Amino acid sequence: MLNVQKYLTGHLGVLVSNRAWRALCKNKPHYRLKQLAKANANANLNLFFFTVNTVDKKKKLIKGYYFDFTDNSWKTAIFSYPATIYRRGGVCKKERKSYRTFVRQCNKKKTLFLNPSSLGNWDIYNYFSSVKPLKPYLLQTILYEDPEDLFYMMKKHKTIYLKGVTGRKGQNVVRVERLPDNQYQCKYYDHTKRKVHLLRYKKLDQIVPFIDKFYKGKKFMVQEAIDLLEVNHRRVDLRAELQRNKIGEIEISGVSARKSKKDSPITIHANAFPLDELFDLKKLSSEEKFKMKQQIENFLYTVYKKTEDKYGQFVEIGIDFALTKDFQIKFIECNSQSAKVSLLKAHGKNTLNKAMLNIVLYAKYLLAEKAGVERKGKLTLVRKEDGVVNI
Ligand SMILES: Nc1ncnc2c1ncn2[C@@H]1O[C@H](COP(=O)(O)OP(=O)(O)O)[C@@H](O)[C@H]1O
Ligand SMILES: [Mg+2]
Predict the structure, then answer these.
(1) Which residue out of 137, 157, 158, 163 has the highest number of ligand 1 atoms within 8 Å of its CB and is therefore the one to mutate?
(2) Nearest Cα to 152, choosing from 210, 90, 80, 224?
């Protein structure tokens, strides 16, 4: 497999999906990956892109693509295992075992993972429910075990959301609503057909076979619905991108409002605009805006720090949340591998590029910090050997 004879010492390896890799092979990398590679012009790291399949675990070498700034082209090379890894792509089921072996090898070498863990929907919700400062932002959420759980939640709430414990892009999300005529309605967004599906049932227990078929034995949770803020009769929720910067501090790269398509149960695949614009549309006074922003910032930093307390330090976390019609903040989910789609849509290329720059500069900061610690370790060792301390 490894036929390129050029050896390089890798500093920042970016793990991408097979699809992203194929695009690189065709010399058509995804726009956002290209921007990440270009951001490196300011950091000068040895940055390359790879997939699980391009890792030679026996030789501990990786075939990767890098962007050559001397002639502005993509090239392949063979890299040693990188000192830092940024995960930007899913690992599919049949590659999971191979990926785990690779991670074990990396851990032995003390590789720094910029986003060290995935943040599963239920894992996070379950953990946050024990974190006091986060309680006001949480929705009632239970893990589905049997139909009784559904009946119980439907009795308490007029509308609920069923959500896979993992999954993305709203693929595992179903909205269940009790209608005024006491019938029940299920709504979900079909990805392959790109349309909203609507199902009606006279009785609640009639929904169960549909749910069984939808989740195919996969675990999911039942959550009370947020009474989402609306703009022109479209539901709106929010996505915040928080990142660590070049000196390791957490900062907010952008908060975007996402407006759903007509009748859609999810707000993804829709248009996005800055938070300020949402406040203007809702006609908030400047005082209200200021107060709301402070509350949101406080909420976001708390989510970030509490997540890190359990899962380790992250270069960035994409936080999904919402405002209710009476402007209460509600937490939806955390994303450890944010694609930053809404950030680009709402805040433009410059903001996206700054976010990409944060990733490489933070990797650089970590490497410098690690080198510093190692140097310091050596110095104290020398001192002891010198016997200076004992004289
Ligand atoms: N409890 C809820 N109430 C209202 N809308 C919700 C709720 N949970 C999820 N949604 C909607 O569904 C979308 C997808 O849910 P999310 O939990 O973020 O799953 P995914 O991992 O698929 O992105 C959210 O962005 C939001 O628009
Ligand atoms: Mg989401």
Answers:
(1) 163
(2) 224
Residue type, 133: P
Ligand nearest to the CA of 321: 1
> Which fold would CATH assign to domain 140-224?
Dna Ligase; domain 1 (3.30.1490)
Q: pTM for this one?
A: 0.93
The model's pLDDT over 111-161, given as tens digits with 9 standing for 90+, comes to 999 999 999 999 999 999 999 999 999 999 999 999 999 999 999 999 999
- DSSP H helical segments within 230-340, as ranges? 275-281, 286-311
Q: Determine the distance separating the centroid of ligand 2 and the alpha carbon of 121, expressed in angstroms.
A: 9
CATH number for the region 229-336 comes to 3.30.470.20
Ligand lying nearest the CA atom of residue 119: 1
As its CATH architecture, domain 5-115 has: 3-Layer(aba) Sandwich (3.40)
Q: Where in the chain is the domain with CATH 3.40.50.20?
A: 5-115
Q: Could you give the 3-state DSSP secondary structure of residue 141? A: strand
Ligand in closest contact with the CA of 166: 1
Strands in 310-375 per DSSP E: 316-323, 329-335
- For 234, residues 6+ apart whose C-beta sits below 8 A from its C-beta are 259, 260, 261, 262, 270
- Per-residue pLDDT tens over the stretch 40-76: 988 889 999 999 999 999 999 999 999 999 999 999 9
Q: How far is the CA of 67 from the centre of ligand 2 (A)?
A: 31
Going by C-alpha positions, the residue among 137, 186, 195 that lies closest to residue 159 is: 186
Among 168, 228, 320, the mutation site with the greatest number of ligand 1 atoms within 8 A of its Cβ is 320
| Ligand 2 center from residue 237 Cα (angstroms) | 10
* Cα(176) to centroid(ligand 1), Å: 13
